[in-house]
## 1
Amino acid sequence: MTEPVLVVGLGNEALRDEGIGVHVARALLAQPLPPGVRVLDGGTSGFALLGWLEGVHRAVLVDAMAMGRPPGTVVTARPEELRSLCPPDRLSLHGTGVFDVLELAAAIGLRPPEVLIVGVQPAEIAWGLELSPALQQALPRAVEAALSAIAKAPAPGQPAPTNPEATELTQREGEEEMAKGKRILIIDDDPDMVEALRLTLQGCYEVYAASSGQEGLRKVKEIEPDLIILDVMMETATEGFQVSLALRSRDPDSEFARYSRVPILMLTAIHQTTPLRFAPDSDYLPVDDFIEKPVKPGVLLAKVKKLLANGNS
Amino acid sequence: MSSLDINVHYVTRVEGHGNLHAKIRDGQLEECQWEVPEAPRFFESMILGRPYYDAPFVTSRICGICSIGHTLAAIQGVENAIGFTPSEQTLRLRKLLLHGETVQSHVLHAGYLALPDFVGAPSVVPMAASHTAAVLCVVRLHRLANEWCDLIGGRTTHPIRAVVGGWTKLPTPQELRGLRQRIVDALPDARAVVEVFASVPIPRFERDTEYLALKKADEYAWYGGDIASTDGDVTPLPEYKRKVKEFIVPHSTAKWARGNRASYAVGALARVNVNYDQLSPLAKQVAETLGIKPVCCNPYLNSSAQIVETAHALEDSLRLIDELLESGLHEEGYAVAVRPGTGVGGVEVPRGTLYHEYTIDAEGRVAGANFVIPTNQNHANIQEDLKVLVPSLAGKSKEEITLAMEMLVRSYDPCISCSTHLLEVEFV
């Protein structure tokens, strides 16, 4: 017999990212689900959750969670694990916290044997019906995480994570300690791109920006970054290349000699528009890695982490 | 209490943010203030220029608890503006939906938020250990109400089926029969909650107060009616501004209101006071059990009055469902002919009388809007109560006085977020 599974998307969809749970519930309701799975748009009232828990074997609660992570981070975890990792959240404006509701459910014998929370780090909680760009990007991953939580119970005694980013969460605890104080300089003339990168990175790193190659080179001296994210086309079509060549100059008297080992992550959309393929080249394109536009937050974080780790070693 | 300063920032277990301040010097109350610091939200401006049929959906978002009440007040206001008269079937379904919200909200407030005060628990979580059976009754009633609203309105909150002109989708007779049975099955839970409220000590505090509620000749008024005062006067709904005199105070981002006196109260206790004779038989029994007789001027009994109205909503819904089944459900559509005009909607929502006024232009767009929210109407009364309450607590500790003040505010079941969008804004 199939064990009953309840998925509740919680939140206020009139408060932009606060409504991510409701958006996930709607997406789930629009697709075929395994037998025994009930999906509810839980709205804003935390207490309403209690009534639906009776007789449920596994509850999957999808909600915006203030986890101090980059916006759009999706985490699947047991409530206790999540609670230890982030400050107590507010489930909604009108209800009470999800952890309080689960505590109450336990006190009156309604807590299901298995409870998983799919938490999504919001970027913006403000009046409005649309999700922020970061959460629009995260929505498919949140749906995938909910489906994964529906399909797969965590093994007894095992840590909860059921999706890669959740695994990343627990690993990242130690890494964040390492990341503290690391400075990243973004050199890009597109303010929207700078903002998107900043939103992704600012939870873990100190983020600075420059809007031209010249300003970027000046700020390298001022800030002494641990990593540079560098756009190619700015005022000129090759401005990014020139900045990288200046920074990696082989002239021992170069004014940038002391920054020649700072990792450079080159930002480009060129692979989408031409069949040309670029690769790091110490003579002609002295960068450490590329990242494609549009930038996926998970990919950006992974590349930044890797380059910083290489820099440390 | 020769000299005391009480400052409570953000009273807990209420919806939204409100602060309490009291300054007592040599046993005399020098200052007492109920502050509402939340940011205003300007829904009246947001709705301007939008088509008439958007009004219920947009204004429903004013609140996540009384979203059904806002929807229905908007529908009624727009229909009155354009001169549309809904069918009897439509009205019965609207009342049935409103009853669902009344049970949903009253059970939430009385059971989860107010009851811990009366049993001496800091919140419902520790209360669950000592009153497990009662909390389970509350959970079941709340679930029933949520699914009831979902069944009739299409969602647990922010309904989508109730529209200007009628309904986009009707429940089936089978669904109505199922709901009827669930309501019958829930009556023992409701009685159990009544017993809990009858067994807990309710603070004794009385202050002669004017109470306002909608009134109808033929039923306990929820949807439409005249505005009746316990002072004896009756005001037609379209003239609500003559009775409800709004004003602004410096320490509140919400408007306040007065009637015949410096303040008045709306809500469950006000309705029971105004319409006691029209309560259902079960609700009258409950009122008697809980010691409520008109005119009852103890604000702490508002939560008990919510239990009385829960019984009324359950019992009256059985009548409405029977009438709907008896007359048969008919697809009526929701087409309306739009003519320009101004109309007022008045609905009794869980926290009191809600007014929505709309002016619709010749193109069917909203040209003017004004909303008067129940919590706003209670702010001044809360303050007046506090001014009398605090001096009466002489000899109590600071903690006891603070708790009594917080309990008083909570008894009104304020929905502060709902109330903070009413500053007059002049766009030039």
## 2
Amino acid sequence: MNPEGNSGDPDAGEPIEILKELEWETSERFQAQVRGKIYRRAATSQVVTYSWNLPKVALLEFARLLSHLFQSLGTNKEPKQ
Amino acid sequence: MAEESNAGFEDQDAELLRDVREAREGDLRAFELLMERYQRRILADCRYITRDENNSEDLAQEVFVKAFFSIRKFEGRSSFRHWLQRIKVHHCLNHLKKASGKNELSIDDEAPVIHEHLQVPAAAERNMETAAHRQQVSEILNSLPATLRIPLVMCDMDELSYDEIAASLGIGLSATKMRIKRAREQFRLLYQEPGMRHES
């Protein structure tokens, strides 16, 4: 994992080894804040993706609408008597 | 025995990672369990690399956010812990670059300030669980100049290799080894008994 690390390193050992165990207590809201950031980033990403695709989607839907309209006009014409 | 406990720890990480990948969108429970295992360590690292107590929790949180969105790219070639620490190191170094307003990280070669009150008395209880001892070790780390503190944290807290540290900091391998050696010497000096302190 760390071939050049301090295992067997003459400069390591006490008290340097203490650093491996060093931690700092997080606030109570730490995880909740991370969760919030993840949700916001995911939501932003979805909005951006949707916005990017929106013109294409709108154009396709408009083309379908026109196609349906023309087809309806064609079938609604009464045959000449 | 240490290797066995490390292997066990990594197995638990692998299991949690699998749960994270298989979780439904929006379900962060597995990721939160993973976070719980590393959040205190990541926060300590962020504090000591940047020496920015006000922003260290934000930095630590962003490390986990980055890890979450990159987790599918994690191939398992290294341990999850090592991968997470690399994310953290790059994030903190970028923060330092932005804070200094420069494109390159410049860690000034300030002379170390040695405070007598930082020295841990020989008779004191050297139990890492005591807040006072942890505070003293923190103060020793914070008193080191960035040129020594950052490589020391990356090497002896994050257990990154010399090559990785050199590449991250943009310095040569020899310079990296020398700075870590000097940092360890300074740390020991500040940690020694008062009567045995040598003037540099």
## 3
Amino acid sequence: MADTERRSPFDVPFFAFLVLTLLSGGLCYWRGKAVFLQGVDAAWDMMIQVLPKIIGALFMAGFIQVLVPKEVVVRWIGGEAGAKGIAIACLAGIITPGGPIMSFPLIAALNEMGADISALVAYLLSWELMGLQRILIWEIPLMGVKFTALRAITSFFLPALAGLIAQRIARRV
Amino acid sequence: MDVASIIIIALAFTFGIKAYRKNDGSYEAGITLAKKQALATLPKIVLAIFVSGFFSQIVPTELVATWLGKEAGWKGILIGSVAGGLTPGGPIICFPVVYILFKTGAAVPALVSFLAAWSIFAFHRVLAYELPLLGVRFVGIRFASCLILPPLSGLLAQIIMDVFKVEFS
């Protein structure tokens, strides 16, 4: 999400989606006009449900990205080790905004600073599983609050668990 | 408008006001980031929604129900875990896929596993970022520590749904 390079909205994935839209739409139409119209109806319902949330979330993400600078996260995770380090890493992963372009260079920097692998694995997993930005932009709009809540509850302790396992493995290899 | 939309929009305003009050260009920078991101993603999201709408009409629901439905049980959780790990691309691809599966009869625990596996193992991210930036040892240890997590999360979802009698219509 934090890509700084200028990207045209009409890139390769856009055309891939365009082709998919035409193909799936054509396939529906081939099955009958009613099927096609039902597909359009389903898409329209989804659009009304999803777009206000995604647009709101995009602006929220933009502001959070500005308000939580990378240096803050690095200071947080770099300073602590052990269980406390894992706990802080989990928290930091949740609030780290942006896509892989934001999180991976951060992890690489921490790695070079000598941060504990358990904290790094916990941080990465927490960002992947519990990252607020993805939950707000994608999961809640598409899957609904109930599904998201259930998934978040089941995933909540996984980053810490992975961090602890990573710690054990790292001692042996 | 539903509650979730209102909360998200209210939060966007809250953070916006916070950035504005800082009076150091944060607000403008945030708006620029959001606009850039919106321009990059919204056209694709609109198309992805149409693809979802069309696919929800033509995906063979019996097939989804057999492999990922309630009857599939723990096998659905395992299949979801493997399928999620093999799903390439970012959230713009994954979430519409999960949405379609949800609408065509996949069970929630299987989808929880699917999402967990996709989040944790997304191989496009591993190849593009993790391997080059962190190296083989890190990736190896991380994979080994995460292997059981996707099925575990699905299993937990199943247990929570059974214990608290959570139903998804």
